[in-house]
Amino acid sequence: MDEHVDAWFAREILVHEDALLRYLRRCWAHADDIHDLRQEAYVRVYEAARRERPHQPKSFLFTTARHLMADRLRRGRIVSIEAVGDFESLNVPVDEAGPERRHDARQSLRRLAEAFDRLPDRCREVVWLRKVDELPQKEVARRLGVAEKTVEKQVAKGARLIADYMFGEAGVPRGKQRAQRQRGQDDGQEHG
């Protein structure tokens, strides 16, 4: 154990325990998970501090806790998506969709999850709160401590990036596709 990290952790992180618990109780609906979330946040902060001390320890702690909650929500949603695939093993008639259609739907969901995971952290968090949790823009702004205009811009940016990923060629964003096509045309003009 690094005694310097232990002292730093006690001085800069543990003093915020009451505030952290209030924050987790306010943001997380499952009271049984609160202590696990707190503990996981502490572990992540401690491990990060062993490599490099954060400049703003309190902010780092709360950001870590927020990311943990977002990760848990996302994993919970992914599990529910995967559960759809278990209908076949339950021998329950699902609908008229054939196996190819179900396969295509699963591929689309996986691609959407990949696109979502590629979003910048802040953008992903805003899009999740607005489009998945369906929180009003004002509430998202309040929770994240940003202006409503910032929320609006992040949602637009996230939608554009997801669309680029979903409908681009083999995962290449549309902007890069245009640049590649333009380069191809330029090369054709030079050689033709």
TrEMBL record:
The terms under GO molecular function for this entry are:
DNA binding; sigma factor activity
Pfam families attached to this UniProt entry = Sigma70_r2, Sigma70_r4_2
Residue ranges of every copy of the RNA polymerase sigma factor 70 region 4 type domain listed in the record:
110-158
> Which InterPro entries does the record match to this protein?
RNA_pol_sigma-70-like, RNA_pol_sigma-70_dom, RNA_pol_sigma70_r2, RNA_pol_sigma70_r4_t2, RNA_pol_sigma_r2, RNA_pol_sigma_r3/r4-like, WH-like_DNA-bd_sf
Bias type Basic and acidic residues, positions: 183-192
**What keywords were assigned to this record?**
Sigma factor, Transcription, Transcription regulation
Q: Which residues form the RNA polymerase sigma-70 region domain?
A: 16-76
Span list, region Disordered: 172-192
The record ties this protein, via CDD domains, to: Sigma70_r4
Which SUPFAM superfamilies does this chain map to?
Sigma2 domain of RNA polymerase sigma factors, Sigma3 and sigma4 domains of RNA polymerase sigma factors
First and last residue of the signal peptide:
none
Q: Choose any GO biological process term that the UniProt entry carries and state it.
A: DNA-templated transcription initiation
Check the record and name the NCBIfam families matching this protein. sigma70-ECF
Similarity field = Belongs to the sigma-70 factor family. ECF subfamily.
This protein is called what?
Answer: RNA polymerase sigma factor
Source species of the chain: Pseudoluteimonas lycopersici
